[in-house]
Amino acid sequence: GIWKESVIFVVEDDAQNGPDHVDAHRSPAFVISPYTRRGTVNHTLYTTAGVLRTLELVLGLPPMSQYDAAARPLFGCFQATPSLAPYQAKAAQVGLDTRNTAWNHSAERSSHFNLAKEDAAPDLDLTEVVWKAIKGENAVVPAPRRGAFLRAAPKHDDDDD
Question: What one-character-per-residue DSSP string does 51-111 give?
Fold first, then answer.
């Protein structure tokens, strides 16, 4: 079948925000293939352009732009020999139709968020609610850390500042 020569990339659309202890501009990505290194979490900094570049390399296509041409391919996600062992699904531990019945301060706060439209909820408040839901109601939320890949230009005497 086709599976032995396939790869599936799962990436978040419009990945943004959600800070905890690292820069907020990150998201999970999944690479599914017989050539994927199984049982591995790869912490390499990749970009969406890197996913595109990897796909181009797999298909033997040239880069579409300077961004994917310069992007780091996801080489660390793959192994040379395919594993055709079948996937072993884990059964859900909680019924998919079970609603969360816990009610606390964070639940009260989030009940007022506008979740009907993307990016309408206040990002830092939403981050705090999610953090406390996972870590506990008394957990302290780390301050957001933001990073930019910018190089400062040298100042000149004729600058206005």
Answer: HHHHHHHHHTPPPSSHHHHHSPP-GGGB-SS---PPP-PPPPSS-TTPPP----HHHHHHT
